[in-house]
């Protein structure tokens, strides 16, 4: 009987919230949150590979390309230890936050193409301005919840979650140029999928605040369906909150997506990632989706094509592409021809 109730509740929720069919695409050619060249060209590479045309093939999807946000090219030095290129990261994310908020106010799903994962500060901040009850699903091999005191690299792409959540605001020094961003998002509305390379202080934060986190070993035990259903149930038991997914391509196994800066073996299969996004799409509540850390400058031509194709496949699943096939636009019925046997 309990299973029947859960099934009926899930069916009623899916009927209540229909997926938005309007999408706003934002490019963020930014790479200063990490140390390798190339991730900044990902928006251009994805567009060149036909991303917009493929998205428009999804039945009924209205796609508007808002172009690339302005990315600053120069910075003034600031006195903050172990936090490389903070002024550039800050300026980029401020512009991005404003753009994401605009797309959402236009009634569209905000789809952001990075760039490195430091841009998650801007996408989540912009989403929170519009939907304060949002929940965040961070799909990543890494937790990205280091501060400048706990980070081993000093790269901000490992710090965006810690910059966003209000529970960790007291662990930061004063950050010049970041006055525009006030941490208001609660860690109670955060969940992880795909973790497999977590620093010890990150693990401490996840355990201290009881963040629902399904690492790869958990996904192996329970499967991707039960894993994301558990996270959604924990964060949103009533099933009515807007969802933001920040998807790092390194959450995929490096055989699936080799052209990324911090690849880790043993990750999600592409099939698992597509299923994950199909489940989230079916809730009807996806309002923002980030795709980050694709680096076309790494690997050979085959690696680049495989990684870009994987990223596009995950994004298309998030926005309603069906592996069962799509009906052709403007066609409601197949022609029927009657055959008569010769007498």
From TrEMBL:
Matching SUPFAM superfamilies: Arginase/deacetylase (SSF52768)
Pathway, per record: Nitrogen metabolism; urea cycle; L-ornithine and urea from L-arginine: step 1/1
Alphabetized CDD domains for the sequence: Arginase
GO BP terms: L-arginine catabolic process to proline via ornithine; urea cycle
Domain of life: Eukaryota
Cofactor(s) it depends on: Mn(2+)
Binding site for Mn(2+): 117, 140, 142, 144, 248, 250
A Pfam family assignment: Arginase
Gene Ontology terms for molecular function: arginase activity; manganese ion binding
The protein's name: Arginase
Lineage of source species: Eukaryota, Metazoa, Ecdysozoa, Arthropoda, Hexapoda
